[in-house]
Amino acid sequence: MSKVATYLGAGWRQLRTIDGVRSLQYFNMLRFGATLLAGIVLAKSGLPPRQIALYEGWLFFGNLFTFYWVIGGQNAVLQLVPKLAAARRTPFFQAVWLTWLAFSGLVALLLWLRGEGLVARLTRFEQVPAPGWLALFVWWQTPAWLVQAWYLLNERFRALLAFAATAFGLQVLCVALPLRAGYGLEGIFRALALLAFAKMCWSGWLVFGRAKWQPWWGGLVRWWWAALPLMAHVLVGQSVDYIDGLIVSSRMEEHWFAIFRYGARELPLSLLLVGAVVTGTIPLVAGQGVGALRSMKERITRLGRLLFPLSMVLMLVSPRAFELVYSEAFVPSARVFNVYLLLVGSRVLLPQVLLIGWGHGRVLVLSALIETALNVALSLWWIHFWGLTGIAMASVIAYLFNKAFLMAWAWQRLGVPPGHYVHWPEWLGWNALLWTCWWLWGG
Is residue 34, in this structure, part of any structural domain at all? Predict the structure, then answer.
């Protein structure tokens, strides 16, 4: 009993002293946990992979036309708000929120009018189910993402975690309850759209509910110019994930899409914990400069001591784990997953934090263009030799090249050598072990 009390007390003290980076790490872990649980619920429900592919395809197209806006626009908010006077921050958020709502409305209208034609041209899916609910989901979900930035910049870290626990818990219920009640995929899509509406209302309350209506349109202009290169960077760079999905859905039978999507996921902790370090450090670099890189280097070095060994263990157990967690039909996903585990070596290299924080977004676009071209070329080449595994390996090689290019640019143009944010001896040693493990039992 005393040990339990000790652990609970330690956990409570950690929550009381939580900072922005740690709160984002917990936020991302909760988000991944909800995605994982939803996938398990679907796999254990008895639905065939073809039906699960429709669910994955629905979410895929729900994010395809807005992901760059959300990530790039949010990074621009994180870059600009620390430099604004306190009186300007709420009006700035109001203008950005209204812009996001309008843009997502236009995308939703496009999906409602032309969605079936886009699906037919880009994939082998006959159609995406519930196109009307998909349009509403896109419209309502996009402005809801500003909740994360609002809590972070207002240092409401525990409130961010409460929101995450509530929203992502409801996300799992939106999958489980309709299946339990016999409403099938249609019921799931309706529930997810209504959850997106609730989150959008909450984001609107945060921005407008306690403040005077006074959107700062001049600040929106500043945000737009800061966001454009960051959006372009995300659109080009992270569109690789969507391009891979389009290659699979257009070149292979429909059921392979679900198998690829279940395997095409990095080590969750690397994507989530390192992503939180990136998001949480951008405002610090914008305000403090190179000095903020020291603490980032320490955090990333400590994370590497967790992420690399965990990746090696997962390579060994992934085939059995996919069979137990999902079903025997998804065992081929493990080979794809093992390749994506190699991405942890590139994920812990963070030159983009310095470039975004200092407002050098244009080089990110150039680097992302090169990465995307390399990835697509290798994917179309290697799919003929190694199938889904070839597409995954193309992503690993292209992403590593991208990080090398950005580090070289930051060193030559900004005078910041990689040693300021990378502990090279450990990084090289861990990567040698990781690739050796993949060669022995992961490939």
Answer: yes
The per-residue pLDDT for range 226-274, each reduced to its tens digit, is 888 778 767 766 666 666 666 665 555 555 555 655 555 655 567 667 8
State CA 124 to chain mean position distance.
25
355-361 mean pLDDT: 78
Q: Examine the pLDDT at 11 and tell me if it is beyond 50.
A: no
Give the C-alpha separation, 247 to 364, whole Å: 24
pLDDT of residue 13: 45
Of 195, 221, 247, the last residue of a domain is 221
Query: Left, alpha or beta for 215 (phi > 0: left; psi -120 to 50: alpha)?
Result: beta
pLDDT tens digits, one per residue of 38-49: 888 887 777 777
Are 60 and 261 contacting, i.e. CB atoms less than 8 angstroms apart? yes
Q: How far apart are CA 10 and CA 146, in angstroms?
A: 31
Contacts of 190 (CB under 8 A, 6+ apart): 130, 133, 178, 183
Q: Pick the closest to residue 25 from 297, 269, 283, 348 (CA basis).
A: 269
pLDDT digits (tens, 9 = 90+) for 111-164: 788 766 666 665 555 666 777 888 898 899 888 888 888 888 888 888 889 998
404, pLDDT greater than 80: yes
**What is d(CA 37, CA 114) in angstroms, rounded to the nearest whole number?**
32
In a domain, 1, yes or no: no
Q: Which of 20, 19, 16 minimizes the C-alpha distance to 279?
A: 20
Eight-class DSSP state of 329: G
Q: Indicate whether 207 and 293 sit together in one domain.
A: no
Dihedral of alpha carbons 272, 274, 275, 277, sign: positive
In a domain, 153, yes or no: yes
User: CA of 213: how far to CAs of 81, 96, 207, 209, 320, in Å?
Assistant: 18, 13, 9, 9, 55
208 and 261 fall within a common domain: no
Residues 313 and 418 grouped into a single domain: yes
Domain range enclosing 174 = 19-221
Name the domain count of the chain. 2
> What value does the mean pLDDT take over residues 94-121?
81
CA distances from 431 to 103, 131, 184, 308 (A): 42, 44, 44, 8
Residue 152, CB half-sphere, CA atoms under 13 Å: how many?
30
pTM (2 decimals)? 0.65
* Crossing angle between the packed helical segments 49-64 and 20-44, to the nearest 10 degrees: 150
Helix, strand, coil percent content, the chain, rounded in steps of 5: 85, 0, 15
Beta carbons of 222 and 80 less than 8 angstroms apart: yes
